[in-house]
Amino acid sequence: MEGNNNEAGRLAPPRHIAIIMDGNGRWAKKRGLPRTAGHKAGAETFRRIATYCKNIGVKYLTVYAFSTENWKRSETEVSAIMALLKKYLLEAVNTMERDHIRLHFFGDMTPISTELRALARETDEITEHLSASDFQANVCLNYGGRDEILRAARCFAADCAAGKRRPEELDEAVFSGYLDSKGIPDPELIIRPSGEQRLSNFLLWQCAYSELYYTDALWPDFDEAELDRAILAYQARDRRFGGVK
Ligand code: IPE
Ligand code: IPE
Ligand code: MG
Question: Which of 19, 24, 216 to mutate to test the pocket of ligand 1 (most atoms within 8 A of CB)?
């Protein structure tokens, strides 16, 4: 792992940005609207920011859309979020090939509706036909960092029981290969809008050396200028990875 600072001491722009899309409910409340209106606005922001990331040469954008804990919310709110995801996937099926956008899901899809899972499979198939160098959005749906680690551990244990692996083989690289993020480099930058300063179970394995950036903007208000500010702040950081410079 290297910080790759250039001569001016600035880091190269991040290749992988992860965002906790938070603040939709407060955005709606401020306007006297139902929380679901905030999620609708937040979905628009996601479209905009994904397009912007692609245009400025970011390779991977990972967004937290629905956590393993978000089922605690009302049935109305959960179904509104799932309906927005369905709408996004229906659009994606028709546009990702044209726009060269690869789409991938992180999370446990088993409790997700068969309709959404079928759409996710469809977008996976389209992604397979796109070039590996194309921009990739990773959507975290029913995702929890701890759940991802447990699922990976279970899979590794099952492979050991089946004689495909030996416990002594387990190292960081092997374990990473069992995670939802297999093959994808760790995010250099994790952004959380809405003023909260916590990870809320996001990318717990992958965040080991990520730079964290917080902003008070609520997700529906987050725009290109906000992302530019986050990237500039990142580029001014000093990444040491435990070493000394
Ligand atoms: C983030 O916005 C979206 C999801 C968690 C699905 P919130 O809905 O958490 O918005 P706030 O935090 O209540 O404002
Ligand atoms: C994190 O936001 C999950 C997503 C943005 C999908 P939450 O709003 O659920 O997190 P807490 O409850 O404030 O920690
Ligand atoms: Mg929230």
Answer: 24
